[in-house]
Amino acid sequence: MEWRERYERAAARYAGGETREPDERQLVQLANAAWAAGLSLLMDGDGEGAREWLVRSAERYRESWDSGAPTDAWGRPIAMMKALLIAGEARACNNLLLAALLTLDAGAAEAESTIGRYAATLALLVLDRDDEAAALASGLGDGFPAAVAAGLAALAPRDASAFGTAAAAIRQDFESRDDFLEDLPVPDTALALEALATRRTLPV
Predict the structure, then answer these.
(1) Residue 3: its pLDDT value, please?
(2) Is 44 helix (H, G, I), strand (E, B) or coil?
């Protein structure tokens, strides 16, 4: 399937979803559809269109979080931050900082789950609270993807060499997968961490 066709299918799902009651679960479905539309346009070479959809996706994830999401639904603030990082433009910056603060205010750094602490690590890196991010990244544990943990750990001290190695490993791991959010084979974690590296003036 071509990327433009993937975009059209995702945009149609989003349009259809807007006609339904915007409860917490429906907002997640809208967010996922906007995420798929944005990444499809990104892969198709339409950067501006991709940014608009990714920012929209983050907005819907935020609305779903505010509409009664379970307190341990850490995937939503993670998706929020990743979408805004990949969007990578000035108008997304304030939203990104707010998403990071929201994540920490919700207690992600103290979460028992690894996914919660991952959310907190991303948030701390966004806020340039590098020492705290490094401490959390080092404790993500054996069950967490090692390459992602290494990438997070390398971003905290701004170690370009270590990050380059980790980013390559993240992409290699991605290429071995056959299960993707919204059935979309795009290395979103690598893209988000590379966007964080760019914010820190590291080569990617």
Answers:
(1) 95
(2) coil
